[in-house]
Amino acid sequence: MTKISPEIEVEMQAEEVLQVSADVSFASNQFPKYKLGADNQIVEEPKEDNLGPSLKEVVEQETANLSEQHKRLSVRDLASKFDKNLAAAAKLSDEAKLREVASLEGHVLLKKLRDALESIRGRLAGRNKEDVEKAISMVEALAVKLTQKEGELIQEKFEVKKLASFLKQASEDAKKLVVQRIGEALEEEERNSPASKKQDVEELIEEVQEARRIKLLHQPSKVMDMDHELRALRTQIREKSIFSIKLQKELAISKREEENKSCLYVLEGSENLGSYLRIRPRSDKPPVLSKCSIHWYRLSSEGSWREVISGANKSIYAPEPFDVGRILQAEIVSNGQKFTVTTTGPIDTAAGLGSYVETLLRKSNADFNVVISQMNGQDHPSHSVHAFHVGKMRIKLCRGWITKARENYSLSMQLCGVRGDGNNAAKALFWQPRKGLSFVLTFESERERNAAIMLARKFALDCNVMLAGPDDQV
Q1: Do 430 and 415 touch, CB atoms closer than 8 A?
Q2: Contact of 416 with 468, CB cutoff 8 Å
Q3: Burial class (CB in 10 A: 0-12, 13-18, 19+), 83
Q4: Each residue of 319-337: pLDDT tens digit?
Q5: Is the overall model pTM greater than 0.90, yes or no?
Q6: Which listed site, 256, 267, 276, 456, has its alpha carbon 20 to 30 Å from 443?
Q7: Kind of pairing, strands 265-268 and 277-281?
Q8: Phi and psi of 402, rounded to 5°?
Q9: Long-range contacts of the stretch 111-119 (C-beta < 8 A, 24+)
């Protein structure tokens, strides 16, 4: 160390200065400050501490900031959750009202079914009566189960209403708290720089959205669980209703069979499309059918309405496509006495007829071989084969180059199965191209006759025309 004195000047020999590498790191970027002490000793000044606040203070500040941010996050998340759960609870309450209506209809159906069974039981005896009593027991058991399910639904509805009121109150409280917290956060953010304020808000929104997404994926709420339970209950009630309707239909069929047994006449024949039904007396006691007045009717599958089939006044009737899914009934009147015979169930369609018609619909037209049996109500002398052409816009009847009739689909055109007597009724149809001209055409098979009727009605419907028989209600 060199001593320096202010009074004495000392000549120093020039010494060679060594070069300093550029990689040297100095502790400071300025000339050091010092003072001279006793005996001209250099005394360095105490260095200023520029390290800032201590580590403990920094940790406490960060902890306080994170705690405040967590409070804002939890309050907003809670408010959002309450709003969603409140909407779900309101939806469940509306569905519960609809279920009450469905349950009331179920009780009404069961009551009517039990009354019908009670009325039948008084008129039966033996094994049939026992079967009816078993059916009554089943209906009563079903009513008890339905009542129990209603009790459970009422209890769940009460819980849903209670939860909805709780969620509504909690949502209002959460909204108030959110408003308060937002106000405090805005005041705090106003003291900060605009750049940091925008960045914090964006980060807060992202964190809230991520928290909501994770919560919805991994933590389903109680309201969602109750929704699944209510769906299962609705499925069970629907199944019970279907079973009740099925039982009611079987009861109606049984009732019609009992009525037919007590009648002096019976219906013979297969109850499907492509066959014909014949009225036959059970014994020699009933009046001869040729001296009776006969009328055929169509009934709905539930038996709620009935319409007369115009022109069907013979002992034989061949169902047509318009009769599928409906019950047929014949009414015989003789000397003031009225007898009624009914099919045991609705008329079924013929096997394979639907696919055959679908194949024909892919073409622009279809031709069928027919024989003219009647023309304008008179028997036709010739039995030559004609072509019955069914197109998308018109129907044509011709033989070679000779055209008997050709008409576009119109309101005056009529087409239906033959409603007269004869064993060929299932193969014949009635066609009125226009007023004053009508034909009875016999096809080669029952399937072609029914396919021609269905095809013509489909093409006519595309032209906004309903093809049916005389006085049919369409």
Answers
A1: yes
A2: yes
A3: middle
A4: 999 899 898 999 988 888 8
A5: no
A6: 267
A7: antiparallel
A8: -90, 125
A9: 113/139, 113/244, 113/247, 113/248, 113/251, 114/139, 114/140, 114/143, 116/248, 116/251, 116/255, 117/251
